[in-house]
Amino acid sequence: MNLNGTLPLSMVAVGEPVRLKHIDAGRRLTHRLMELGLTPGVNLTIVQDSGGPLLVSVRDSRVALGRGMAHKVRVELLTNGHNGHQ
Fold first, then answer.
1. Average pLDDT of the residues in 71-75
2. Domain boundaries, the chain
3. Rounded Cα distance, 77 and 17, in Å
4. Pairwise CA distance, residues 64 & 71, whole Å
5. Which of 77, 83, 42 is nearest to 60 (CA)?
6. With bands split at pLDDT 50, 70 and 90, how would you rate the model's confidence at 2?
7. Fold category of 7-77 in CATH
8. What are phi and psi of 28, to 5 degrees?
9. For the segment 9-48, what is each residue's pLDDT rounded down to a tens digit?
10. How far is CA 60 from the centre of its chain?
């Protein structure tokens, strides 16, 4: 984890609740991820990690993200008493 308390989504364990903080990507990829429901402040959970793309639960949907994409999605853990509150 770095100084601002975020880590890449690719480093999160299956089932660990997280909140999306920001996306460290170019405009096109950021726009595409936002179209898929990955917007700052949304809560996410990785539901499957079998070594390939990550299957992520977001807004009552499932989204498959390649590891490169998942590494650009910066999240904060919600297990420190931050559950659901900003």
1. 96
2. 7-77
3. 6
4. 13
5. 42
6. low
7. SH3 type barrels. (2.30.30)
8. -65, -45
9. 999 999 999 999 999 999 999 999 999 999 999 999 999 9
10. 14
Residues near 55 by beta carbon (within 8 Å), at least 6 away in sequence: 46, 47, 48, 49, 62, 63, 64
Using an 8 Å Cβ cutoff, are 59 and 69 in contact? no
Count the neighbouring beta carbons within 10 Å of the beta carbon of residue 22: 13
Residues 6+ apart with CB under 8 A from 78: 17, 18, 19, 43, 84
Between CA 76 and CA 64 the distance in angstroms is 20
**H, E, C per residue of the chain:** CCCCCCEEHHHCCCCCCEEEEEECCCHHHHHHHHHCCCCCCCEEEEEEECCCCEEEEECCEEEEECHHHHHHEEEEECCCCCCCCC
